[in-house]
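Aim 2, interim progress: modelling of the iron/sulfur cluster-bound target.
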Amino acid sequence: MALPRGYISHSQIRAYKECPRKYRLAYVENIQPPGNDKVFLGEIFHYAIEHYFLQRIGGVLPTDEELEDYFRSRFDTDASNRDISWRSPRDETRQRGLAFLRHFLRSVAPYTRPLMVEKELGAELPGSGVLLKGVIDLVEEDFSITDFKTTTGRWSESRARNSPQMIIYKYLFDRSFGPLPANLKYEVFYGRNAGNVRHQTLRVIPDAGATEALLVMIEDVVQRIGAGVFPASETSLCRHCEFRAACRDMGPA
Ligand code: SF4
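Predicted structure of the complex, ligand included:
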């Protein structure tokens, strides 16, 4: 069996590692469960900062009001056109997103030197020739690579240190542009409500050999997907799985 999308990516690898059946439901069966407010908020926040960085790259500095209007308009339009399961009320989610955006404009935006935004990169894996793809949120003029996250709680430093996502981005960046010294970091905006939003910058410093180990793991995942190996992995995470209903319909593991 070929890869369902014709390539492998960090989100596919993460889905397979969490639960191979979840991968099957999402990428082989193409089941699309309703989105949830957390993922939706992250998407709209990313659209807004992409808009901001594209303007900056084009030599224009957008005003805070303009960017907030962009966020509100995109949030309202997409929320009306999509099937979203609101675990937090829609207006509260919108206010929280605006608070994230204001925090970004105050604490992060003035210190960035954007060079590329939402940059899609790809490279064939050595050996198998399978295409590995990734989309980097932001590359700055000093080639630092940043991924932005919106979430409810603070991240631990260990969560960022050997992040497979960032190791993949750096690998793709080096394969595309040659090995360049590049800082890797997450900008994490977190808070449960609009009145309590904070931000942390987390450096990603992979251990020696982390890239090689990750490539071995990716090859293993690719082979299992190719062989149609999709066992259900039942853990406490099943409670939060968006494919729970479809999984139940498929029967026991
Ligand atoms: S409910 Fe659990 S076993 Fe089923 S797909 Fe989701 S994570 Fe896997």
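The mean pLDDT is 94. The longest strand covers residues 114-124.
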